[in-house]
Every structure is written in C-alpha cells, then in structure tokens.
C-alpha cells in the first residue's frame, strides 16, 4: 500500500508536466501556421440594387392637358365710325358655335405685337388712276403711324404674280422699300387672289404665335390673271370657240368660279388668323362699272368675315383719312380671350359671334370664326 501511494505521488506531477508541455507545443505550432498562411481575401462587395424600369403608360392613367386659348381682336365703333374705347369686359358677349363662352381677359393691344402684310397693286387698272405716288406716300405714312418698335411689316406687289418686295422689317425699312416700287408703264395683268393667298401663307409661316395679324390691300380688287381665274378664262374661251358653250353659259360659269375663288381666298385669310383691310383707289367710280362693283364686293366680303373693313376713299386727301382710321382701329382694338370647350376637330371652321348687348347703338367688327390648329 505504501509502494502504490509512492508511485501515485510521483505520477501525478509528471502527468501535469506532460499536459502543459503538450499545450505549449500545440500553441507554438498553431502560431507558426497562422504566420505562414496568406492574407485572407477581401470581403465581397455588395451588389447594387438594380434600378426598376420606368413605368409604362398602361401601368397608370396618363392625364394630358391642352390649351385652347383663343384671342379675338374686336373693334367697336359708334354711328360716326369712330372707335369706342374704355368698355369693360362685362359689356361683351361672345358665342362659339352658338354657345356662350366665358371671356377670361380683355387684353391690351399695345402689349401684343402686330404683324402687317401690305399688298400694293401695280397693275394697269390702278397705276393709271393718276395718283400712284400719292398712294405710296400715304401707305408709307400709315406704316410709320400704326407700327411700334415691336411690330413688323412685309410688302408684296400685286401684278402678274405675287412678289415679295420686303420681308418682315421695321416700319422705316418697309416704308422706304414701299416707296421704291415703280408704277407700271405698260399693261400689267392682275393676280389679286394669288397675292392675297400668298400673303396669308406668309403670315402662317413667318408670324409668331399670339401676334395680331393684318393684311392691308391697296387695290381695286380686279383679277384677271390668278391661276384659278386664268385657267377658267382659257377653258371658257376654248369652249366657246369649239361651240361647246354659249357666251351666256360661259359667263355664268366664270362668275360661279370667281365666287369660289373668293371663298378660297377668304378661307386662306381665316386660316392665317388675319384681319383683312382693303383701300380701293377707284373712288366713287367703283359703283359705275359692273366689274369694279363685283371686285369691290369681293374684298368687302373677305373683310367682313375676318373683322376688317373695305374702304373707298373719295379723293387723294380722303386716302390719308382712311389710313388714319385704319391705324386708329388697329390701335384701339379690344383683345377678347377665352378658352374654347368645343370638340370640333382641327381643320373644321368654328363660328364666332361677338356683341355688346349693353350698347346696341355700337357696331362691332370681329372675325366670324377660325380654324383650330393641329395639336
């Protein structure tokens, strides 16, 4: 029993020493192994969250709005033909397609630029009247009188074809160019309808949106050379030569086609949103001739449909008065603005009627309608 106790007494310390030695060696081996290993790889970068695609139209309801603001220049005159100023917005009534419209604003014409296209007749029927140069001076004075620095004017001549003498420019440039136009020294045909249509197209192409547009014509309105009229005349003459049409039938056909030509020109001016003013230098003799009367009536029809006026000055001095009256009217216009709620498609005419019910004694001049623009 003693021997066994002695062996146990020596064995326990030895076992403890062996365990400690083994632990120490294992630590050294582990330390050497960590030092010899390569550095750990960098941690993985997080992947970016993909951006979702934009929503498609079918994913939600798309709301689109369009502006149908319409501006209608209106002239109000008394029994003497003088402009009436200072009327409040409540005095006006405006209908479109027979339905009342709410006038939202009464604009100031001085704040809306004016684009004028002046058509000067150089054909034989006008240049032989004897006061061609006086017409030039009166028209140039009109441009200087009515135009402001923000306004522009272009000049066409009415002859065998439309001819642009001066593109849009200031009053001084346009007036100076106007006075360089020579009078006709030999018979010159008249393409009146073609020139008015060319002026309307020029306004559509060159005039800015929301500008007031005006066509002022100095002519007797006679036309014998526009494309439509010329082709009609040739066709009717040849038909008469062949015996296919009597002179009376040919005349009726030509008159009907002239009326159609006037309507085509009227539509062109309306599509340009322009007011048409004519100054006929023929004087009182206009009513003594059937052709002259018909030509002037055609100009008056275009003027009334677009909110303008057709004038017949009595003399040279009266010509200056007429131009002053046109200038005063353009500067004294009311600009009625409203938002149309009509569903009439683009390209179809929308009728307009403007009245001043509170003053039935006044005359109101405004365009009879307009053609809505493509969206």
Give your account of this protein's structure.
- This protein is of the alpha/beta class.
- It contains 9 helices and 14 strands.
- The protein has helices at 2-36, 124-127, 132-146, 171-178, 192-206, 227-242, 247-271, 290-306, 316-331, and strands at residues 69-77, 93-96, 99-101, 103-107, 114-121, 152-158, 163-169, 212-218, 274-279, 310-311, 334-339, 350-355, 363-366, 369-370.
- A 6-stranded mixed sheet has the order 7-6-5-8-9-10, with helices on both faces. Strands 4-11-1-13 form a 4-stranded antiparallel sheet. The chain has a 4-stranded antiparallel sheet with strand order 3-2-12-14, with no helix packed on it.
- Helix 3 runs parallel beside helix 9 and helix 7 runs parallel beside helix 8.
- The longest helix is centred in the N-terminal third of the chain and has 35 residues, at 2-36.
- The protein is globular, with a radius of gyration of 43 Å.
- It starts with a helix and ends in a 5-residue tail after the last strand.
- 32% of the residues are buried.
- Mean pLDDT is 82; it is low at 1-9, 11-16, 18-37 and 55-66.
């Amino acid at each position: 029993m003693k021997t066994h106790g002695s062996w146990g007494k020596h064995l326990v310390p030895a076992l403890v020493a062996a365990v400690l030695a083994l632990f120490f060696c294992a630590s050294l081996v582990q330390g050497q192994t960590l030092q010899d290993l390569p550095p750990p790889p960098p941690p993985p970068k997080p992947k970016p969250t993909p951006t979702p695609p934009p929503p498609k139209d079918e994913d939600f309801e798309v709301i689109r709005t369009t502006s149908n603001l319409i501006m209608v220049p209106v002239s109000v005159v008394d029994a003497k033909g003088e402009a009436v100023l200072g009327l409040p917005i409540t005095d006006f009534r405006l209908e479109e397609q027979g339905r009342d419209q709410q006038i939202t604003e009464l604009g100031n014409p001085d704040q809306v630029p004016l684009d004028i296209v002046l058509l000067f007749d150089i054909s034989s029927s006008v240049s032989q009247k004897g006061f061609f140069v006086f017409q030039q001076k009166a028209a140039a004075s009109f441009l200087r009188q009515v135009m402001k620095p923000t306004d522009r004017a272009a000049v066409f001549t009415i002859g065998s074809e439309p001819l642009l003498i001066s593109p849009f420019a200031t009053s001084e440039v346009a007036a100076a160019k106007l006075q360089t136009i020579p009078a006709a020294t030999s018979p010159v045909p008249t393409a009146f309808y073609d020139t008015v249509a060319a002026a309307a197209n020029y306004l559509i192409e060159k005039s800015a949106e929301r500008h007031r547009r005006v066509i002022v014509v100095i002519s007797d309105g006679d036309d014998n050379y526009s494309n439509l009229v010329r082709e009609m005349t040739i066709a009717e003459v040849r038909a008469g030569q062949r015996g296919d049409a009597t002179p009376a039938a040919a005349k009726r056909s030509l008159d009907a086609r002239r009326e159609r030509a006037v309507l085509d020109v009227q539509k062109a001016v309306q599509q340009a949103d322009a007011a048409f003013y004519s100054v006929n230098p023929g004087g009182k003799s206009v009513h003594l001739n059937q052709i002259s009367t018909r030509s002037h009536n055609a100009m008056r029809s275009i003027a009334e449909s677009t909110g303008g006026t057709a004038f017949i000055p009595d003399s040279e001095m009266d010509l200056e008065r007429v131009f002053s009256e046109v200038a005063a009217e353009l500067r004294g216009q009311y600009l009625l603005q409203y938002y149309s709620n009509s569903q009439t498609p683009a390209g179809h005419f929308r009728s307009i009627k403007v009245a001043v019910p509170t003053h039935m004694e006044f005359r109101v001049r405004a365009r009879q309608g307009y053609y809505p623009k493509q969206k």
